Amino acid sequence: MTVKDTAAWLQERDHFLLLTHVRPDGDTIGSAAALCRALRALGKEAYLLENDGLTSTYAPYAEGLWAPEGYVPQYVVSVDIAVRNLFTEAAQPYRDRVDLAIDHHGSHEFFAAETCLEAESAACGEIVYAIIRELLPLTAEIALPLYVAISTDCGGFQYGNTTPRTHRIAAELMELVDVTEVNKALFRTKSRVRLAMEAWMVAHMELYDQNRVVVMQIPLALRREMQATEADIEELSALPVQVEGADCGITLRELREGVVKISVRTGPRVNASAVCAQLGGGGHKGAAGATVEGSLEQVKAAVLAAVEQVTQ
Q1: What is the side-by-side strand order in the sheet with 213-218?
Q2: For a Cys-Cys bond, which of 139, 235, 290, 292 suits 276, CB 3.0-4.6 Å?
Q3: What pLDDT, on the 0 to 100 scale, is given for residue 149?
Q4: pTM of the predicted protein model
Q5: H/E element holding 17?
């Protein structure tokens, strides 16, 4: 469906439950929160489904929006979810009954009855912004989570997915809300634990392919030793590709023994989505991920082999 179609679809219905993905980031939470607030402003009943992976970084933007226990929706909408394996545990009962999916991932698997997909959008927040503009005027309450969604998914407007449209939308949102403190909290503040983890990752990084491929790891033992929270670990996947000369940054995070989360950030030479697709994941050309069974060494070998195959 187009943005206009999606807005009309939402306008004609009521009693919504919005789903966000596992290990929720600013885009899924901000987009869902903004859409939920917009639907409520239209006089509709709308809630977010609980997400036990939510960190303190993004929790404030969803405050007051969580569905009460036992809530039975008439319509289920997923926001920024490309594939079913990104559903939270709480969302599993809705795997086969999503009525509408709103997403910006080219690897989207079309699991919903209706889909609003714009793979060229820098963030799902850009799509939700356009949908909301079709429904009602923006308010500060809606603009704030939208700004969080868009700004975080393009790395504070530094990533290659940032477009002139991204800046135009952000400028409009900034007319409604002061984002000074939001920017400081999201992009210029790190815990001591986070800084220590970055130092360890840099000290133990590995370079491949004429130093163009950088691999950093987050072993489970490291997190336990440093008593790191999810908020300490957020966005560490952006670190490897910041190394001078790198155009492919790979982060391997050990979720639990025998299970590793892969995050790939790349430049034009390497298609991150193609790399992760070989490992059961997906995403965008410049940023993608997958969750793979195996040890850190086994998964590292698998992802390096995928990178080599994609860049041949």
Answers
A1: 206-208, 213-218, 248-256, 259-266, 287-293, 282-283
A2: 290
A3: 98
A4: 0.90
A5: strand 16-19
